[in-house]
Amino acid sequence: MKIGVGLTMMDRQYPGYLDSLVKYSEIGYDVLDYSMYSEGEGSIFLQDGWQAYAEKLREVADKHNLWFAQMHSPGMGPVGREPMEEVKLELTKRAFEFCSILGTKHLVVHPRMFTDGIYGQNQERILEYNLQFYGSLLPYARKYNVTIGLENMFAWDPQKRQYCPTTFSDVEEMLECIRRLGDEHVAVCFDTGHYNVLGKNPAEGVRILGDKLELLHVHDNFGNGDHHLAPGYGTINWTEFMQALKDVGYKGTFTAEAESMSRKLPAAAEYDAAKLTYSILKALVEEAGM
Ligand SMILES: [Mn+2]
Question: Where is the Xylose isomerase-like TIM barrel domain (predicted)?
């Protein structure tokens, strides 16, 4: 199983993605996740000729035997509360072309969430909204042959001051969305940490998703926050999780979204954090014989 990580772990020690690629390759990573999560107004992807940047990235990645297996589209606030709504939608559409230049197979696109959509409230209305939303992206998915990854989410309940379920917290809801979209360019990106925050066992989520699970955001937490730590630094049972992946015949990559391993460290320690994260992922994969 190919091992991957988000391309932000070493961005202070090695600024500029092009220079850091060699470092990920040196550590042993096979694949990378390019995140457009924070892209908005002023993004390079809104400038003429952004494709040249993408082509350069691809060229350097190829040279170092790295593959951008998955990408994350721009993060969006709840419907009606996103100040850059139009810009982020435009960037999301451009992300498909970016994927095609990089040879990326999966683009993760969060569902649109609503402030009145926690604890399963208004679920059918919100699912209808998301069917329209993903449906509007499907022409791009088909054109560039990229699969949209639906991701399981969580929200914050400001009244009870605790994390709570929202759109796609229930993996069955993602399966229902895929069934109703009826297009092979849609699959699930399972986020282990998001599931654990809600007190649910990620291994069980994997078993429900079965062959609709095509990609992962692997990270750990203590169940009291979305900490984005490497496996073993929280409360998730990774032996059980790996067994579940094996049992459902998971064929995707083992890609971490564990940026907190390095984010607050002194810049000079980022490489070592990325290396430790790799060692952990590699050991889990090898122990599971995957
Ligand atoms: Mn995630």
Answer: 25-270
247 alpha carbon – ligand 1 mean position (Å): 23
**pTM of the predicted structure, to 2 decimals:** 0.97
Report the C-alpha gap between 65 and 31 in whole angstroms. 9
> What's the CATH code of the domain at 166?
3.20.20.150
Find the 145 Cα to ligand 1 centroid distance in Å. Answer: 22
CA distances to 45, 86, 234, 242 from 192, in Å: 29, 30, 11, 12
Cα-to-centroid distance, 123 and ligand 1 (Å): 21
From first to last of its 290 residues, what are the pLDDT tens digits of the chain? Answer: 999 999 999 999 999 888 899 999 999 999 999 999 999 999 999 999 999 999 999 999 999 999 999 999 999 999 999 999 999 999 999 999 999 999 999 999 999 999 999 999 999 999 999 999 999 999 999 999 999 999 999 999 999 999 999 999 999 999 999 999 999 999 999 999 999 999 999 999 999 999 999 999 999 999 999 999 999 999 999 999 999 999 999 999 999 999 999 999 999 999 999 999 999 999 999 999 99
